[in-house]
Write a structure and sequence with these properties.
Blueprint (H helix, E strand, L loop, with lengths): L5 E11 L2 E7 L8 E2 L2 E3 L6 H13 L2 E14 L4 E12 L7 E7 L11 H4 L1 H22 L5 H16 L3 E8 L2 E8 L6 E3 L3 H9 L3 E3 L17 E9 L2 E10 L7 H11 L4
Parallel strand pairs: 1-6
Antiparallel strand pairs: 1-2, 1-4, 2-3, 2-7, 5-6, 8-9, 8-13, 9-10, 11-12, 12-13
Helix pairs in contact: 3-4, 3-6
């Protein structure tokens, strides 16, 4: 197989107030297509360092990099592109030095411009981020003034399940040496899970989120349902100790990513 030219870039996915910043290319084979600002990594540079440098060079802009979003691997006819994408916001203004135009796009306007193919891959992830942003606002309103944890868990599991159409959504509470089934949405589930057993027990034992792209490849998996294909479990903390876990299952392989992890970790912090 012929070796393909490989290009590695960093891209700023600038997302502010529910709108996405898009720029129109002013040069090259893809002139007039739309993209995320950014550029190539120089030797010895990290993606974050390249992003800060590129935005200053091409837009005279300073940015705040909030978190990593995703890496896109895409085959163009002329080369293979590796694009590291970060959620960012502007710190101050900007000037268009290399681009023909720029726009702020609401999610309903994403398809109003012609995106570069690799950049277009990112839009589905951003739609998910927008859905989580709306969900977190609803949860904040829902839990306000309600001190009963079980009641909040019941409504949160229902809201999550309805919003994302997951296969199973619910909570397990730490009760002595076991996880005990709490409020949930979906088919019948395991009642009790020992510490360190299954994905839920592993998340409890490690005190960290566990994402499993294929539950059949997880050696410690407890098969509560053969229809579950992938899973994410997020621990809830109180005074530094795990008191419960949020467990979500999907009928699709590799259904959960860094956006799910980040936003679900923010969600469980809202539960009293």
């Amino acid at each position: 197989m012929e070796d393909r030219k490989r290009i590695e870039v960093a891209a700023a996915v600038i997302w502010q107030d529910g709108r996405l910043f898009a720029t129109e290319r002013g040069y090259g084979a893809y002139k007039d297509w739309w993209e995320f600002p950014g550029g190539k990594l120089e030797p010895g540079e990290t993606p974050r360092e390249a992003l800060v440098r590129e935005l200053r060079e091409e837009m005279e802009a300073d940015i705040c990099i909030h978190r990593f979003l995703m890496t896109v691997e895409y085959d163009y006819p002329e080369f293979h592109l590796t694009m590291h994408c970060f959620l960012c916001s502007f710190v101050g203004g900007f000037s268009l030095l290399e681009h023909e135009d720029a726009r702020w796009l609401a999610p309903s306007q994403f398809n109003s411009v012609r995106w570069l193919p690799a950049d277009d891959v990112v839009l589905d992830r951003l739609r998910k981020e927008d859905k989580y942003a709306l969900l977190l606002k609803r949860v904040k309103s829902l839990v306000q003034g309600e001190p009963d944890r079980l009641s909040v868990m019941a409504n949160v599991s229902s809201l999550l399940h309805e919003s994302f159409s997951f296969w199973w959504t619910g909570f397990y509470r730490v009760v002595e040496s076991e996880l005990l089934l709490g409020p949930f949405q979906g088919p019948v589930a395991c009642m009790r899970i020992p510490r360190g057993k299954g994905v839920c027990g592993t998340a409890w034992e490690r005190a960290e989120t566990v994402v499993v792209p294929d539950v059949n490849q997880f050696s410690n998996h407890i098969a509560c349902s053969p229809d579950s294909r992938s899973e994410i479990v997020v621990p809830m903390f109180e005074e530094g100790r795990v008191v419960a876990v949020l467990d979500i299952d999907s009928r699709q392989l590799a259904a959960f990513d860094s956006s799910d992890q980040f936003n679900l970790e923010q969600l469980v912090k809202l539960i009293p």
